[in-house]
User: Fold this.
Amino acid sequence: MAKFQGGVDGIIKALQLMNSEERDRLLSEVSKKDPRMAELINEKLYSLSDLEFISDKMLVEFLQKVNSKHLGFAFKLQNDDFVNEFIKRVPRSIREDILYSRNESKIAKRDALSYEKEILSLFRDMIDKGSLVLSKNDDYI
Assistant:
């Protein structure tokens, strides 16, 4: 019998393909057997870098719901290449708020992690409700 080689990353890729009900049911089962593993999977399920996989229209909807200052603080933890590409898609006034928070304001790393968690919670909720769809293969039309 073949051995599964995907590990946590393989599980995460599979979960991202499921609808929210299936994903929640499976994570609930995992949680019963290994709560720490379920928590790890849930934390890694989405990242801020997944924002590159939403359409411009979805980005506008996301930006309407997110606090741009908090997004800037969360972006302190992201690499410059991702932030620079993302920021090109953002309207100027919001872009300035995000970049000011990211580059000019000083905060503790634990606070940046807290803002990242807040943003990811909103991101995950919007995906679960269907208002955001990740299109990693550019097949969303």
Summary: The chain has two domains: 1-45, 48-141. The first helix runs from residue 7 to 17. The two ends are 40 Å apart (CA to CA).
